[in-house]
Amino acid sequence: MRQEAIARDQPLQRWQDYVVPQCWEAFTVEDHAVWDLLFARQVELLGTRVVSEFLDGIDLLRLSHPGVPELAELNAILEPRTGWRTVAVPGLVPDEIFFAMLSERVFPVGNFIRTREQLDYLEAPDCFHDLFGHIPLLAHHDYAEMTEHVGRLGLAAIAAGEGHRAARLYWHSVEFALAKEGGELKILGAGLASSFGESHFSLESEEVERLPFSVERAVNAPYKHDAFQPRYLVSASLDRTIRDVLALTPERLLAL
Ligand SMILES: [Fe+2]
User: Fold this and answer.
1) What is the 3-state secondary structure (H, E, C) of 78-116?
2) How far is the CA of 128 from the centre of ligand 1 (A)?
3) Per-residue model confidence (pLDDT) at position 12
4) How would residue 7 be classed by pLDDT, with cut points 50, 70 and 90?
5) Mode of pairing for the β-strands spanning 209-212 and 184-187
6) Is 216 one of the annotated active-site residues of the chain?
């Protein structure tokens, strides 16, 4: 929150100004134990309820290695594969900084992890959400390209004073999307993949709307920051989401 205030005062800041050392050595034995608990619990909970490319990414990036991942080690696998790399940040970054990072294939990762008392709820995304939720699919070439494109769309929308359009697109494609795979409903979004409570809720609750994904619907559908979503957009497939988002130009985003 404090950073948002800084950014509004000094809008010319570069994304590099928000990067901090991960200080992996500073994670305690308890921090690593919390990661291991979250990881084991979430993998078991998800099972095959998530798109298969997500599980491929977990394996490719060796995220099942015990303890909080060291970003340098992760980048040594991820960057040669898709050109994406992770950097540590102290917390949420402003939208324009976030989209600028994405547009350069840089993903910000919180340099902290929740406590054992906060396993199921936290106010700001920690490294478990960022790494477990987001990074596996960034090992997928086409998804990697799509996420860079979302960054460029975000910068264009903010420059036009229409940042909410890109935020909604991001929310309904990258964070809270569902997708069909082999005729079954699967989790696609990072916010769902990393959530203990909402992952099953999004697939199974009968109290929410599930509507077909389109970029037009995504851009016009409000979302909730602080509660389970009242509606989820369901894509015909991961590839379809990627194709639809990549086909979206900044001009069309502003006109939808
Ligand atoms: Fe996220």
Assistant:
1) HHHHHCCEEEEECCCCCHHHHHHHHHCCEEEEECCCCCH
2) 10
3) 53
4) very low
5) unpaired
6) no
